[in-house]
Amino acid sequence: MPMFTVSAGCVRKVGAFLLGAALFVAMAPVTVAIAAADTDAAPRVRSSHAYIRAMIIEAGLRSITFRKLVGAIEATNGIVYVEHGVCGHSARACLNLNVTPAADYRILRVLVDSRQPDWDVMSSIGHELQHALEVLSNESLTSAQTVYLYYSRVNPTGGDSFETSAAIKAGNSVRNEVASFARKPRL
């Protein structure tokens, strides 16, 4: 079965499913152990990559839209890992549609190309957090298959390519708010 991702432009079928599945299986014990830990003390939007963690913090300081997305994710049973990675097809970021159940949580993974300018990284993360929220807001979405069927029903485009206007709007809002913050005069 192919693996699908929601990207900064679409959902794409990724041909390297076996490699992704092997990595997913290898990471599962670690993921379950982390999720079983006290998640109230840890943020629900996380990264092991120092630069991406810094961008998440910076976007939270500069963008109300970003803060609202993170707050909405905090109110779900989800944990979102945002990590550096390449999505393929020139996408700057993507949401992997695999959903990992761990204890009472659903774990999602976002990949972002951290070689972009800071404002692009922040807006790409905001865009993908909107996709993560779309998944986490529907408790019946518990597998790659159910997520794919959800997106094919909500926004059918033909083929394996999907996008939502809410994610486009979120990414644009984060970009505009970050840019506006940067233009504010400093005393």
Molecular structure report:
This protein has 187 residues and is an alpha/beta fold. Helix content is 50%, strand content 19%. It contains 6 helices and 6 strands; from the N terminus they run ββαβααβββααα. A 6-stranded mixed sheet has the order 2-1-5-6-4-3, with helices on both faces. The longest helix is centred in the first third of the chain and has 20 residues, at 17-36. It is globular and about 50 Å long. The N and C termini lie far apart (57 Å).
Strand order of the largest sheet: 2-1-5-6-4-3
Q: Choose one word for the global shape.
A: globular
Strand content: 15-25%
What is the terminal separation in angstroms?
57 Å
Structural class: alpha/beta
Helix count from the secondary structure assignment: 6
Write down the overall mean pLDDT: 81
Comma- or semicolon-separated keywords:
6 strands; single chain; alpha/beta; 187 residues
Compact overview of the structure:
The chain is α/β, with parallel strands linked by helices and 187 residues long. It contains six helices and six strands.
Secondary-structure map:
Elements: E1 3-7, E2 11-14, H1 17-36, E3 45-46, H2 50-62, H3 64-74, E4 78-84, E5 93-102, E6 105-112, H4 118-136, H5 144-154, H6 165-183
Parallel strand pairs: 3-4, 4-6
Antiparallel strand pairs: 1-2, 1-5, 5-6
Helix pairs in contact: 2-3, 2-4, 3-4, 4-6
